UniProtKB/TrEMBL annotation:
Signal sequence interval, chain numbering: none
Organism: Celeribacter marinus
Annotated protein name in UniProt: Large ribosomal subunit protein bL21
Similarity remark: Belongs to the bacterial ribosomal protein bL21 family.
GO CC annotations, alphabetized: cytoplasm; ribonucleoprotein complex; ribosome
Quaternary data: Part of the 50S ribosomal subunit. Contacts protein L20.
């Protein structure tokens, strides 16, 4: 069985036992990692990735690639030349297991690039910030109000002004006279959309 995995912006076709050189990963020698961005397993093709599939690999070593020379020369009068060398940092891996199913429950650490932030920090921060917003969004819905931001052109600030003025439903906004309403500058198309949404 083979799989096609994606890491470091590149794709690799692998089988169990293969040795890979990939862009540097945040891991130490002897550690087992799991790649979850799997484009293909056997004959199963993902869109964009195969769900719940994974490739597990053991880190052999952190290495450097061959030296690449970058040479620039400007010809003729007042010429200059510059030479720079670069050795790309790589991680040497041995593929140990290809999982068609059950990759999410395997408990193996996900492979991440050396410069990336741990996934736990990325997931935890938005959840805490999103919790108050979710509570605010549910509160008006529970009291029988509509989401006025569904109207094209009405943003969160305008919706808040409408709510402060006592307009919380599409029917109430549909009954507003755009010329005489002072709390918010109401566009006639907002009233028309509110009438359609209120039906």
């Amino acid at each position: 069985m083979f799989a096609v995995l994606k890491t470091g912006g590149k794709q690799y076709k692998v089988q169990s036992g293969d040795i890979l050189r990939v862009e540097k990963l945040a891991a130490v020698a002897g550690e087992t990692l799991q790649f979850n961005e799997i484009l293909m397993v056997g004959s199963t093709i993902g869109a964009p990735f195969v769900a719940d599939a994974g490739v597990q690999a053991e880190v052999i070593d952190q290495i450097k690639g061959k030296k690449v020379i970058h040479f620039v020369k400007r010809r003729r009068k007042h010429s200059s030349k510059r030479t720079k060398g670069h050795r790309q940092q790589l991680t040497l891996l041995r593929v140990t297991n290809i999982l068609e199913k059950g990759a999410e429950k395997s408990g193996v650490k996900a492979a991440q690039g050396a410069g990336s932030v741990p996934a736990s920090a990325n997931v935890a921060a938005p959840t805490k910030a999103a919790a108050p917003k979710a509570a605010k969004a549910q509160a008006p819905a529970a009291s029988g109000s509509d989401d006025l931001t569904a109207i094209t052109g009405v943003g969160p600030a305008a919706a808040k002004k409408f709510n402060d003025a006592g307009i919380t439903t599409y029917a109430q906004l549909a009954a507003v006279d755009a010329a005489t309403f002072d709390a918010v500058k109401v566009k006639p198309e907002w009233v028309d959309q509110a009438k359609e949404l209120a039906q």
